[in-house]
Design brief:
mainly alpha, Helix Hairpins, about 75% helix, about 0% strand
Length: about 80
């Protein structure tokens, strides 16, 4: 996938979908059945999926922190 298309494809993935794809790539790379070119492509896709998962986790963490950090105990506030 090219850079822009790859980013668009990732943006639509949930954390669970991205993690599942990442796990499949890891299994494929560990099996060692890919050509070098295929392995490089899988590695690049895996790195992009990892970044996507990290972003999703950071967003979830920010929401949890917003709940925890209320002025008078627990409160909800929008996180941007």
């Amino acid at each position: 996938m090219s850079g822009q298309t790859e980013k668009e494809g990732l943006a639509d993935l949930s954390f669970e979908e991205a993690l599942s794809q990442l796990e499949a790539i890891v299994r494929s790379l560990e099996a060692g059945r890919s050509t070098l070119a295929e392995a490089i492509g899988e590695y690049e896709r895996g790195a992009a999926l990892r970044r996507h998962c990290e972003q999703k986790l950071a967003e979830a963490e920010a929401k949890v922190q917003a709940v925890v950090e209320g002025r008078s105990g627990l409160s909800l506030r929008d996180v941007e």
